Amino acid sequence: MTGKIIGTGSCMPVRVVSNQELSEHMDTSDAWIRERTGIRNRHIISGEETTTSLAAEAAGNAISMAGIDPEDLDLILLATSSSNTHVPAASCCVQQLIGAKHAACFDISAACSGFVFALITAQAYIRAGMAKLAVVIGADAISNLVDWEDRSSCILFGDGAGAVVVQATEEDIPFYGVMHTDSTKAGALLAKSRHQRIQPAMEETYLRMDGKEIFKFALTRVPQVIHEVLEQAGCGVEDVDLFLLHQANGRIIESVVKKLKVPPWKVPVNVDEYANFSAGTIPVLLDQLNRRGKLKRGQRLVLAGFGAGLAWGGSYIEWQMDRITGSEEG
Ligand code: COA
């Protein structure tokens, strides 16, 4: 048994916050942010929007594309580190919102590597015969974690959610995945929990980041993990059609492109519009490519996530959906 992706979906918050808007509240500028990160806008939750509402909407869009009945789902995995609920898990709230009453639900907390880790976990459950139809979601509202007075970090982040439906099949479809964690560098990207009996100072619960350390880490580990997963798959970088990297920052992506020596058009980017919304970036990019008709059956995709932990992971997928033609939706 292997799992194949049969539907993708996403949901981005309505409110768009531009660099210009940020520069009205803090000492920064559109030029500085664009030059250092490639980011122009980020989408930020407002009104009734939450991590779980975005996650449920993204899952619903993936389910509609897959044409399945939510009651047939037996697993919901939600990768998030910014859930609006502590108990129960955010995935339980999603179950209720999408009516997937037969699914077992749990969250995966692996920050920006979360979606890749969750997809590998879903595949492992399917291969073990423990699940047949899963929805895997990456959703985060990092706007709740950042300190909006810390210009060195808040400009990088946003909110959003993406999802895929994975179905067990007897077909022999290659899937490979690798996951790594090095907690000796955990301090480079850290936010203490607000859910403690002895409350930490509020400022300790904001996301704190050593930008240079994270930059160095990404430039080393991302090319490494891509080579590692490709070695498992028995192919080289030249055999890959598309690399879907976690959208942390345009400069990191450009540097990885150079290190891998692949043409930039094989490494799609949307960080300019959405910034870094952690576990959600890879599935949203996947969904946008899919709905724009950029994916077709048989293409070889490599996904790579990296971030707090420090954690990083990669997966190799052979795409099994037919190319979508016509208008964009969802
Ligand atoms: N606007 C204007 N100036 C800013 C600024 C902002 N938003 N943030 C920092 N600066 C200033 C600093 O205070 C510093 O000023 P100084 O030279 O007078 O001390 C100067 O800009 C350079 O700061 P520095 O931190 O050295 O910049 P940098 O080149 O390392 O870029 C990042 C900062 C955050 C953009 C960069 O380190 C980075 O992209 N790191 C990776 C972060 C990431 O992707 N994290 C998520 C991973 S999942």
Brief write-up:
This protein is 32% helix and 24% strand. It is built from ten helices and 13 strands. It has helices at residues 19-23, 30-37, 51-66, 90-98, 114-127, 151-154, 211-233, 250-260, 271-274, 281-291; strands spanning 2-11, 15-18, 41-44, 75-79, 104-108, 133-141, 159-169, 175-181, 189-190, 208-209, 242-245, 300-307, 311-318.
Structure commentary:
It is a single chain. With 330 residues, the protein is of the alpha/beta class. Helices cover 32% and strands 24% of the residues. It is built from 10 helices and 13 strands. It has helices at 19-23, 30-37, 51-66, 90-98, 114-127, 151-154, 211-233, 250-260, 271-274, 281-291; strands at 2-11, 15-18, 41-44, 75-79, 104-108, 133-141, 159-169, 175-181, 189-190, 208-209, 242-245, 300-307, 311-318. The strands form 4 sheets. The chain has a 5-stranded mixed β-sheet with strand order 1-7-6-4-5, sandwiched between helices. Strands 8-13-12-11 form a 4-stranded mixed β-sheet, with helices on both faces. α4 links the parallel β4 (75-79) and β5 (104-108). The mean pLDDT is 96.
Oligomer: single chain
Question: What ligand species are in this complex?
Answer: coenzyme A
User: Unreliable runs, pLDDT <50, ≥5 residues?
Assistant: none
Largest sheet: 5 strands, mixed
Question: For the terminal residues, how far apart are their CA atoms?
Answer: 30 Å
Assign a percent range to the helix content.
25-40%
Structural class: alpha/beta
Shape: globular
Mean pLDDT: 96
Order of helices and strands: EEHHEHEHEHEHEEEEHEHHHEE
| Strand numbers in spatial order across the main sheet | 1-7-6-4-5
Strand content: 15-25%
Total helical segments? 10
- Total number of strands: 13
Radius of gyration (Å) = 19 Å
